[in-house]
Amino acid sequence: MISGVSIPAGAMTKLLSTVVGGAATSRITAGERGHSLEMADGVRFLFDRNGQYLDDVNGWQLRMGLRTSSPATRATRSSAIKRVLGWYDERDLRWQDCLELAHMNRLWLSFRSAESPRVSKATWNQWMDHWYAFVLYAKHTGLVDDIGFTRSDVIERGRSARPVKALSATEFKTFIQAADSSRMRAGCAACLGTGVRVSELAALRLADIPDPRGAANLGRAYLPASIEGKGRKIRTIYWPSTAIKWIQWYINGERRMAVETLRQRIARQEISVSQTFLTVASGGQLIENSSSPLWLAENGDPLSYKRWGKDFAKVSDRCGEEGPQCSPHNLRHSYAIITLSLLINAMLKKEMVDRHLGRPEGRVYFMEPIREVKERLGHASIETTMIYLDHIAEHRALLAMAVSEMQATYFDA
Fold it and tell me: How confident is the model at residue 52 (pLDDT cuts 50, 70, 90)?
């Protein structure tokens, strides 16, 4: 269990040296050190269940504390971080492995469930303000590679609602129809079809898209491809052939126009070739190769990571308050729930056949699908993937499929 301890100013010199560093601490004068320690009054230092001082979190607290004038604010920040870390600690999870939006949804369910809310919306939003500030610090200082949510994803606005859910087929089609570009539609297909993170989506190259016309891919519904994911880990994803068609429409249409716009900018000397992904061929023609970025802005520049979030927000606005609100991570979440549900369903069928044939009872219909989805999503811990089990029953389309199969199997027999 995470514990918090308020340390008197006279005992904080050693803790401050942890943050600033031994060499730097020796250059702080007595007066400066006294002022710094006084400014940090109100900080509750955090220790894990073994009594170990949490360097990363406390280091951030001290840095923030030295810039915050109110002891009450510093105490509130410490309390918020303690509650969030305590939730992870109770489940034996490392916070570094738990930066997916699904974890925030699970945390939200623990404290803000409509059935028995344990904290108010204001308190929850306060916690999320401080937690998001900390994970941003962790990303900027290299403690973690990526964050799977934004502040707006976890802050409650208006009436309370769960911050993430799987999109039904109808909601997805409504969202796609509101998109005004083939790039946006192709990006949605990539996220829903493969479960890639938005950072992985933004980093895709032409070479990352498998060719459905290749000899090894003919007739296959899902085409395997390797990508570099979080922490520079290589993993295999499976592209649905229909998602590749959407991407090819984008490549042959909007993307081709964007490349031509880029060539015209170079011809007008608005930008040099060396600043682009194009190269000069022997005949003087500007060409690109398979390592070129897949997603391009209208002027031919590589599409930025942040642009995806803005484009999804624009389409969500077009759908209106009653329409589907969607982000790249919503589609990753949808992929996980749908894939896990269908795999479990398939394993249950296999189990029934095995029993009918008198084979030993395997009871692998939960763990094997979870392990498979874990690999496809690139999760560091299987505990992260198991969170999606909580949301399977919430997917109405899958629930309808289950009811339909039950009627066909049991009632119509």
Answer: confident
